[in-house]
Amino acid sequence: MIDGIFAFSPDPLPPDLDATHSLLTENGDAMYAVGQLSDLDTWLDSPEVILSPLIHREAVESSNIETTTRLTLSDIYRREAGEEPGQTETERADIAEAQNYVEAITTGITALRDGAELDRDLLCRLHTILLQGARGERKNPGELREDLVGIDEPGTPLSEARFVPTPPASIPYALRSLLQYIRSGPTYAPLVDLALIHYQFETIHPFQDGNGRLGRLLVMLALYKWDLLPGPYLYPSSYFNANRDAYLDNLLAVSRDGAWTEWVSFFVQAIAEQGREAYTVARELLALRDRYQDQYQGHGVVIRELIDFIIEHPYLTEPQAVDGLNRSQPAVNQAIRRLWDDGVLRETTGQQRNRRYEVPEVLEIVEPYNP
């Protein structure tokens, strides 16, 4: 109790769980879906071609849980291409936060691949990236919070908040315990442990802002760190966003009622469904890539390289393609013109200069919300 307000501190992991038959079955389904995704990497010659759209999808879904703006993949891709999408300052800030999420995922996976530990320093570094240049940049990016916060609708007084997470003085110790638990490896089945970890992080709520996004990113990092996935192929935020009320209610029920089994069941179902969906999306992207490659067999190496580039970047400019392919401007321009003439690319500006292109068939596969 601090100034008459009760702040909840979770017990260290792990809790005692009742491994029901239903939960074991759900975990088995989820592990099978994760295994299918993991197998993708063994026969992909260029994993980044498929990973980029999946990472962007996760960024959109994670941001849509937190914001009032209904973001699309095209919003992020257009911003990366140099545009300033969004009609209002709020929309533009939401799009910037989603782009930050893309950078944070990439930075986190690269750091772990290079041998970094999943520790407080890495989390603070990723938190700084998430908040840079966005609305949260004034909320102490990369620093543990020093004040009580309430989890509820904006403007709700702290004394009336639905939930008040861990008091600031306890945060360093609670976070250290959680990270030690992650580094020690799973106690239960890995996906069950991921459910425990995600709950624990969100309940500690170590930062003033951005905890939801960082907590969902932590799921991706743990999947990679534990060798369950060779890259960020999964986008669990899609399920959490579609079932937002159940997501928040199940998290709260653990704190209030110790409802671990219900939360773990919800979480592993999310992993199973999103694993299956991500696998389908990846296979559809690969089939589209193969069709394009067959269509332009014998048309030169530049156009074949451009095909990979447009799947990875389905909204692009000519300078982007020139830099990305490291080819001459005339060669890239000729390849873009051919794909445009054939309807693979669609020009979006109607201008003679500074043209921008999108790839409708790629966006149709990966875009969660088609405008």
From TrEMBL:
Transmembrane segments: none annotated. SUPFAM superfamilies: Fic-like. Pfam families: Fic (PF02661), Fic_N (PF13784). Signal peptide: none annotated. InterPro entries: Fic/DOC_N (IPR025758), Fido (IPR003812), Fido-like_dom_sf (IPR036597), Fido_containing (IPR040198), SoFic-like (IPR026287). Gene3D superfamilies: Fido-like domain (1.10.3290.10). Residues 118-269 form the Fido domain. This is Fic family protein.
